[in-house]
Amino acid sequence: MKINTEILKEIDENEKVCILSKVLPDEIKTLIIARATGMVDMAEMLSQKYKNHP
For residues 43, 44, 45 and 51, what is the CA-based torsion angle, rounded to 10 degrees? Predict the structure, then answer.
């Protein structure tokens, strides 16, 4: 699953989390929130999990 980060950068952080929480499963949501809040280590760890999924 690819997420267009350029579009996400355009959206206010709180709004971003709100929008994503409506459309994404919990673990992917956690990944996005981790990235949005600057928790890079967690984001990297979670992204490894999803790297091999389309």
Answer: 110
Number of domains in the chain: 1
Question: Domain containing 12: what range?
Answer: 5-50
Distance CA 31, CA 15 (A): 16
Rounded to two decimals, the pTM is 0.28
Contacts of 15 (CB under 8 A, 6+ apart): none
Residue 48, Cβ density class (10 Å: 0-12 exposed, 13-18 middle, ≥19 buried): exposed
Say what the pLDDT of residue 23 is.
Answer: 63
